[in-house]
Amino acid sequence: MVASSLSTIVIFLPFGLMGGLAGAYFNVMTNTMIVTLTCSFLVTWIGVPVVYLLVGQNENVVGQKVAENGHGVKKQKWVGFFIHRPVIAISLVVLLITSIVFVYPHLKTGFLPDMDEGSIVLDFDSPPGSSLAETDAMLRQVDKIVRATPEVSAFSRRTGAQMGFFITEPSRGDYLIEVEERS
Q: What is the strand order of the sheet 152-159 is part of?
């Protein structure tokens, strides 16, 4: 259990060391997975045996000889079903493998989503210490220039915010400018 949990946690560690925008996205996921896997390990290692000792044993059986198979684990009926009917078990495995062959080519495999090449992100920084009203007044002039550009089909502006999960000053933000497609 220790090796299994640690090997999975180690896989996520490089994601936490990434920088830039990808690092901002994957850092949250990495921390979540590490905490979740650690808690899962602790529950499996400590909690499940305790719950089994409290609930899992029948009071009439405590102290009696362990079952013939060497442990007190109850046999599962579904396992016996497939052992006695190998044709059904093999058919199920073949069906699962066949479905993987047909589904796998349609799965998305990119590390990051495809970039939208029909738009431009324009970051801006007004002078440090500018208020939101001052920044907005300056950007109204930029809005006029962007509107006057014939290749621009639409645009939006975020003032006091940027792409990502961090807090920014009111003097920073970005434009998302959608450019018309050329024929």
A: 119-125, 172-179, 152-159
Distances (CA, A) of 101 to 94, 96, 104, 108: 11, 9, 6, 14
Query: pTM for the full model?
Result: 0.36
Q: Is the pLDDT of residue 136 over 80?
A: yes
Domains of the chain, by residue range, sit at 1-67, 75-106, 119-179
Is the model more confident about 56 or about 35? 35
Q: Tell me the C-alpha to C-alpha distance, in Å, between residue 127 and each of 66, 73, 134, 160, 166.
A: 78, 71, 10, 13, 20
Rounded CA gap, 173 and 171, in Å? 7
Model pLDDT, residue 6: 82
Beta strands in 26-171 (DSSP E): 119-125, 152-159
Using CA atoms, how far apart are residues 59 and 76, in angstroms rounded to an integer? 21
